[in-house]
Amino acid sequence: MTDWITQLAPGLPRWLAEPLLALSAAVLAVIAAYIVHALIFRVLFRTVRATESPADNIVLKRLARPTRYALIALALVLVAREIPALEQIWAKVAGFVMPALIGWIAVSLLQALVKTLKLANGIEGDDNLKARSAHTRLTIFNRIATFLIVFVTIGLMLLSIPGVRDIGVTLMASAGLAALAVGAAAQPALKALISGVQLALTEPIRIGDAVVIGGEWGWVEEIRTTYVVIKVWDERRLVVPTNKFLEETFQNWTKTTSQLLGTVFLYVEPTTKLDPIRARFFELVESNARWDKRVKHMQVTDLSRDAIELRLLMTAKDSPTLFDLRCDIREAMIQWLAEEMPEALVRGRVMSVGPDGRAVGAPSGEALAQMEGEAGMAE
Fold it and tell me: pTM of the predicted model, to two decimals?
């Protein structure tokens, strides 16, 4: 093949002919590999489009880029066997390129598998407890497995450097001290990583759970290896360390089911008739589309000198629906009491006292005596 370049340029020296030969062979190998890859994946994409499963499309899209470069690397290996100059160059970079390509393909396969399993466990429905559990485990294990693959890949790439390999052998002689030093320095990271694994196994929370932590109420939007993202009801994002959910108390409103029981408190006069209020409450709840038809109940939970405390119980399929239902019932009951039973609304009783200790506006002693005399004459 060197003779071929010499024939094209008779006066070309050998020291220049060999690099040109290596370069031209490498370019031709890259072009050929690119064309072969494009043809193969074009046929594969046409084949998977005929199937109903989206998993095939996901896998092919994830593998398209890494396999293209892997095929190019394979073509360069085959050409380098025939050209000594190219083989010398490839031998120096193969230790970096091959582990990187293998790690890239492994990560792409992992992500494609995780995305396919997530599609198979959709969380769009109402009764999605098992699906959210599967999403949580897949998300956490995906991040941990990706970290391990990247870590191993970088380690293999570094081992191709002779100096780094010698340093590693030296460190192995003092492995105990090195392990202690690394463990002490990486304690927070290791703790967070272990907490992430424990979170996936024990499942105190799942993606989509409604939780209350640190006085904030929201939904678990994302679970990462070291922290959890809570989407608060007012669109804020609360970032909480993973170990908070393992070491501190928090509320999970959807641990076993998303259905919840809610209350609305009303305060009415002690002399109020309660049966009309109960009937109106039942009517409002039954006509509201947010009620899940499980529980509706009214109870007298407290009685004081000035008011009766009424607790209205109702249920809904999840916490956002329950919140809206409570607001609807509270507003409708207050409006109905104001229109139909205004005497039932609690009013503040304030008595003004004058300098003599009597209530302002109360009759004096002479006025009382006069009133009593007039009453006696009338009898």
Answer: 0.53
